[in-house]
Fold this protein.
Amino acid sequence: MSRHPVGLTGRQIENMSRLREVLGTRINLELDPTVKRELKNLSVHQTQDPRIQELTQRLSQDASSGASSHKVENGILYCKGKLQTYWRPYLPSHLETKVIKFVHCSLGHSWTDKCMAQIVTRSM
C-alpha cells in the first residue's frame, strides 16, 4: 500500500493504516485438513500404491539392490538421490494432487516453481 494513496483524505488514510481495520478479515486459503492426517498414516497409503509395493518387494528380496538409494524404515519407503544428504519418503500417487494443492494453498497460492521447490526440499 502506498504511503500517499491518491484520492483519499487524511482521515481515510489513518483508518486504513490501523492494524485492526486492515487485518480484520480472515483469509481462507482453502487448506484441506485431511492431508496432514493422511500423511501421518503414510505407511498405510504406501501399501495401497502398486509402484511403491513393487519397489518395497524388490528391496526386501535383494537387500543389496539399491541399498544406498532406498530404505524401508518403520514401514515407510524412503529414497535418496546421489547428491542428497537426507532421506525423502515416497509419496503414493493417490496423494500427489492433494499434497501439491495443500502446499500451493499453504504458501498463499504461489507459483508452480516455488511449490515444487517446497515439496522437493521438505518432508511433510
Q: What stands out?
A: The longest strand covers residues 70-73.
